[in-house]
Amino acid sequence: MKKTKIVLHIFTVMAMALSLSCPTILVYAMEGGTEAFGSVMLPTIKEEIISVDLPTVGDESPFDFYIDPQGLLYDTGAVRHGGGVVEEGAYLLFHNHDDDEYDFSGRSDRLKVTNRSTVPVNIKITAKIYDIGDLRMDQDGSFEDEDDCAIYLAIVDDEGNERVLSEDGEVSVEVTLSSAPSEAYTFRYDESTDTYEYVYQNDEDISFDSYSFGLRGECNANADWSGISASPRVMVTWSVDPVMPDRPEETDEDIEKEASEEISDEQDLENVSDETEDSVTDDEEKDTNTDGDDNNAAENTDTSDATEDNADAPGSDTDKATDDQTDTESDDTKNDNNSRRGTTDSIEIEDVEEMPYQ
Known about the structure:
Blueprint (H helix, E strand, L loop, with lengths): L1 H20 L30 E2 L11 E3 L4 H5 L15 E4 L8 E2 L5 E5 L5 E10 L5 E2 L12 E8 L4 E3 L5 E8 L7 E6 L4 E6 L9 E10 L13 E10 L9 H61 L3 H30 L13
Parallel strand pairs: 7-8
Antiparallel strand pairs: 1-5, 2-3, 3-4, 5-13, 6-10, 6-14, 8-9, 8-13, 11-12
C-alpha cells in the first residue's frame, strides 16, 4: 500500500514539472489585407503619322530623252553630250547617272517613293507627252513593217511592270504601299506634358515599303525622220493619298445630344443667376423691415414716456385732457405705424444689381 502511494506521488510531481517547464503559447485569429489600384496607361496618339519620302529632281530631269533614229550617240560615243557608254541598238535614249552599265540607254534612272507612315498610302504616277506634232504613239515598240515616225514610251518599275502611254499620250499607274513596320515607332514618355508619344526610330535596319519607277522608250529607226521638227516633252507627276483608318462618324443623335447638353448648361446658369438676384432682393427687404421696426419701437417709447409724465401731473381736467390728447396721439401713432408698415410691405426694389455667376 505504501509503494502505491509513492509511485502515484512521483508521477504527480513529474507531471507538475513538465507543466512548469513548457511555455504557454496563445494563438489568436489574425486578418490582413491591402487595397490596390490599377491604372490604364494609354499613349497619346491624336492622329496617324504621315511620312512619305518623295523624289526630288534637280535642274536635269531623269526623263529627258534623245530621239536618235540613226544611232549617232552610239557611233560617236556621245561626245557631244559629255561622252560615255551608250547602249547599242537604243534609238530613244536617256542620260543615266545611277546606271552602273550605261551612261546613255533606253531606260531612265528610277525615282523612288518610300512610305514611313503608320498607315498605308496610295501612290499615283502619271506620264503625259506634249508637243508631239506628227509623231505617232506606238503601243508595242516593235515597229515591224512600219515606216512612219513613231515613238514608244512606258512607265516601268523594279518589278518588271510596264504601262505604255496611250495613243493620246498619257498613262497612270496606281500602287499601294504598306504602312511602316511596328518596330519603326516606339513610345516615349514626355515629362513636360506627362504623356506618352509615338515617335520614329531612326534605325537603318528597318525596311519600309517603297516603289521605284522610271521610263523606257523606243523610236522607229526604219522611218524617214528628215521632215520631223517636233520637240516633244514629257510631264511625269506623282501624288500620295494616305489610307486613313475608319473612324465613327458623328450621327444626328450625337449632334442633338450635344445641343441638348449646351441648352441644359445655359438653363443652369440662368437659374443660378435668378437665385442670386432673389437672394439679394430678400436681403434688402429684410434690412428695410428691420429699420422700420426700430423706428416704430423708438416712437412707441417716446409716446409711453409722455403719457406717464402727464399722468403724474395734478388736476382731473388736465388729466382728462392729457388722457384725451394721449389717446389721440396714440391713435395717430398707430395709424402712422400702420402706414409705415404698409409702405414697407409694398416697397418695390428697383435697380437691383445682378450678382455675377461664379
